[in-house]
Amino acid sequence: MLDRLAVSMRASHVLAFLLLAAALGLAGIGAALDDSFYLRLGTEALIFAGLALSVDLLLGYSGALSLGQALYFGIGAYVSALTLMTFPSFWLAMAAAGLATLVTATIGGLIANRVRGVYFALITFGMAQVVAKVVYNTRELGASDGMIGIPVVQIQFGPVAISAGNPVGFFLIVLAIIMGLYGLSAYLLETPFGRVLTALKANERRVPFLGYSVWRARMAVYIFAGLVAGLSGALYPVLRGFVSPELMFFATSGNAVISVILGGVGTLIGAIYGAVLLVILKSIIGSWTEHHLIVIGLLFMLCVMFLPKGLVGFTRPWIERRIVRAPSQEVGASAVSPAIVKSGSVS
């Protein structure tokens, strides 16, 4: 028997499969036309999609709005860049970035999870601004100019090596990593822990009566979201060959939040769709006018007014209805679903 969260996840998986098919089609077209621009643009969109995914894990499933998720994205990028300039190994850079963000997300979680609501948002914003300012004034990290000259590395897969400078090859690697992070996130949310997160968003005060620790659940999802952002950020210097303090600024976190709202809060795959759409729109509109932010801001307001559930939130119910109508599929209530927590009854 499928519960509501499981049906929603299956619908998201269908949309994820469609995105994967479109991305593979783009890779094929790019390889055939030998066009690197759109492949590089698509790679950048996928990298920022990882950051948006981490925001949706917090906002969409635990109800915590982070305005400083770019902190972990930037830490992952800087640690990756430093590692690549010292030991030019892609996998070592990813491991170092993951470890660094794991440690910093744990520290940040201990600070931020002491408060709730708007205070949580402000503390996450403040932490990101403080670290960004430190990096901005640290000469060893390139200060305001950032770090340049990051080497193009060979990414080893056993006896096979793919150059990070190969647009098609690196696009496929980034696609695999981001979809892997999506798959891991989806798996986590389909476990009992995912139901606890859903219950936290619905009614945090009643969760302890079900035998779960609110603080531990919030810490776990905060650390995991930070890790997702850090691993995504570690890919950025491999793509662009440089990093700058701007990766930690509020604009980066704000774009991630916009991406989640455009795609659909609490849909998971919507964060990826929203980030891809936002990056592409910025590139296309930016080639027409230098006032592209005004146009994007207007589109964002229209989306909030007429599509409050986002693009995926608008289309996913159609897929869910077809999943429910499939033979031998029965939908039941989740053991700790929002409806149960709100009603105060546990069966």
UniProtKB/TrEMBL annotation:
Membrane-related topology note: Multi-pass membrane protein
Ranges that cross the membrane: 37-59, 66-84, 90-111, 118-136, 168-189, 209-236, 256-281, 293-312
Keywords recorded for this protein, A-Z: Cell membrane, Membrane, Transmembrane, Transmembrane helix
Any one of the GO CC terms: plasma membrane
Subcellular location: Cell membrane
GO molecular function: branched-chain amino acid transmembrane transporter activity
Protein name: Branched-chain amino acid ABC transporter permease
